[in-house]
Design goal:
- The chain contains 14 helices and 16 strands.
- By secondary structure, the chain is α/β, with parallel strands linked by helices.
- The chain is globular, with a radius of gyration of 25 Å.
- The N and C termini lie far apart (55 Å).
């Protein structure tokens, strides 16, 4: 049960730093308060500080459940998605905690929040009021029923549940709930645009085969960790045009680097392969790696790929705005047991990456006794001629 009364909220705020285990043990002393609910609120509030800093500043926010707090969008990713729309009416079919609805409301004229669980609706209604979001309408119903929507919708947004009834994680769009494949046609008959958030673990090529109406894909990473895959479908998709892919990596709260390419152009992009390692090594960010823009990034920045299956690049030029990490090469070693001994003696501490290499990072550390950390970056990898090497480098 959701409690939004002033007494509960004040108790939460007064005990925000209290030991939650001790609070639960003292629950009988507070007969007029729902202590288990309050403890959940305290735990969830603490997790919001980094994920939703704007929400965490408001000490009257009520969170519907722990799992909703874990699964909701972060402020960065929600703000990014909100920029995909311009005015009009958006219908969020899987309202949940209401984070996406709230940030969409900053750019939309009106947002319709739909959620099947009454407690979530109650919490959302309370929070939207506290956050000053007055252009959101709340409807408590199942997202598969569109009977209550009488407005002319410009955008539908859906974030299908990616867990089964047994709490098993699901990745493929055809396994999630609600069934987007069944809903997409009626939704695109009602609106020009359908925005779908899918698992960052989903296979992009397979998903595109199921969603041919896709016009754009946005792959969003935060600090080089892939967080969201956003598919934007249009009801008037020109099937002669390729799918635009935008790779985003937030490096801090506001700044991000992007890389755009056409998905179908990747297979025909020009790529050159390195015979030797040049002055700099380039490692694309997680979004580029996820979307498979391995040839496109080589063509765009004129950098040489180390091998067909080695997604590292080399160049004599320093590219300041490269969407990923850049390293200055110290030296290159041929792969051998003597190299392990030499490197282990030289660097007691280093950051190690293995790419297209016969051993793992953990195995590399065992053989060299190198601890994690420091300013040196070691890349164990394979060139196109199957030559295995170890590259010593540092950040310029």
């Amino acid at each position: 049960m959701i409690h939004t009364d002033l007494k509960t909220i004040e108790f939460i705020n007064n005990n925000i730093n209290s030991d939650t285990t001790k609070l639960l043990l003292k629950a009988r002393k507070f007969e007029d308060l729902d202590i288990p609910f309050i403890v959940d609120q305290i735990i969830c509030r603490k997790s919001l500080k980094n994920k939703l800093p704007d929400w965490s500043k408001n000490d009257r926010i009520i969170l519907p459940s722990k799992i909703s707090t874990e699964q909701c969008s972060s402020q960065q990713t929600a703000l990014y998605k909100s920029a995909l729309i311009k005015g009009g009416i958006l219908c969020d079919l899987t309202g949940g905690m209401g984070v996406d609805s709230y940030y969409f409301s900053l750019n939309a004229d009106k947002v319709i929040y739909i959620e099947r669980y009454p407690d979530y609706c109650q919490a959302a209604q309370h929070n939207f009021k506290e956050l000053g979001a007055n252009n959101i309408i709340i409807i408590n119903q199942d997202s598969t029923s569109l009977s209550s929507i009488t407005d002319s919708i410009d955008y539908f947004y859906i974030d299908p549940a990616r867990r089964s009834d047994s709490n098993k994680r699901l990745f493929a769009i055809d396994q999630c709930e609600p069934d987007v494949l069944q809903l997409k046609e009626p939704l695109l008959n009602k609106a020009s645009t359908l925005i779908i958030k899918i698992s960052p673990m989903a296979d992009i090529t397979f998903t595109l085969s199921l969603l041919p109406e896709t016009e754009e894909i946005h792959c969003v990473s935060v600090k080089n960790e892939c967080k969201e895959l956003i598919f934007v479908l249009k009801n008037n998709k020109d099937h002669n045009k390729g799918v635009n892919v935008r790779c985003i990596n937030f490096e801090n709260n506001d700044e991000f680097k992007k890389f755009d390419f056409i998905y179908s152009d990747e297979s025909i992009a020009n790529v050159s392969y390195a015979k030797e390692i040049s002055e700099y090594i380039y490692e694309p960010n997680a979004s580029i790696m996820k979307t498979g823009a391995f040839k496109s990034i080589s063509q765009e920045f004129k950098i040489e790929k180390l091998g067909v299956n080695t997604h590292l690049y080399s160049s004599d030029r320093y590219i300041e705005d490269f969407p990923g990490r850049v390293f200055k090469v110290n030296s290159v070693h041929e792969f051998s047991s003597s190299t392990y001994k030499k490197i282990g003696k030289t660097y007691p501490k280093a950051n190690i990456t293995t790419r297209n290499f016969p051993i793992t990072v953990d195995e590399f550390r065992k053989k060299t006794s190198i601890k994690d950390g420091g300013d040196i970056y070691l890349f164990a990898t394979t060139l196109g001629n199957d030559r295995k090497i170890i590259i010593e480098s540092y950040k310029p």
